[in-house]
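User: Structure please.
Assistant: Input sequence and predicted structure:
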Amino acid sequence: MKYILFFAICFAPMFIFSQMIEVVYLEQSQWDMDEEELGDIEYRNALLLAMEEKRPYKLLFNDSISIYEKIPKIDNSPNDGSRVEFSSSETFIFKDLKNRKIMYDQIYPKKYFILDSLTHMDWELTRETKEILGQKVYRANAEKDKFEIIAWYTKDISIAHGPQEFWGLPGLILSIEIKHERKNSIDTIIADKISMSTTAVKVPQTKNVKTYTKEEFKQIMKEFREKQDRFYGGGVDADD
């Protein structure tokens, strides 16, 4: 309880009340199931339903800062174990374009706060266009960590924000496709609604809060997975 109280005081948000724009995005994940997943009929059907689900998120931003958060879904139906639900490992992603900073939390294996520089993406701009929500959007391509990234952005909102950690195009990103050829998987994020907002942005404050860089957290996860592998392989004691 002392830790929770300390966190509530030291991590109190600062509010920005300038005119904001809000975009609601829908996220969806799909992939080819392996033999084990296909063999369990109930689990397969639950996965198919989960892959059809479009999970709502919102991006609130002005010309310099943005915060991306999941929109809570009201669902009072009990989960008897036959339903699969996808959930992000972050509860928020905050980007500061002016200072080139990104901050987000990781809730697994426990709560961590990541504070680092925004990752530059080497976008390849193309002339290919289409429409999203009545907006003319342009295609841009990039690669990141063996993933193929396809973004569609609008020049009509000439702010370099986007969903999740994506940014850096000459306009707001309205759609992202994340493809992994080896796993034959694709995650899609597409704008569903754009509106003006007077909602205050909660800027996470890092004073007196321990933060980690992306590389530091990557090392933490590597060591955690190695320990899990040893544990389940019988290589360590449960109390280790």
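Confidence is low (pLDDT under 50) at residues 1-17, 236-240.
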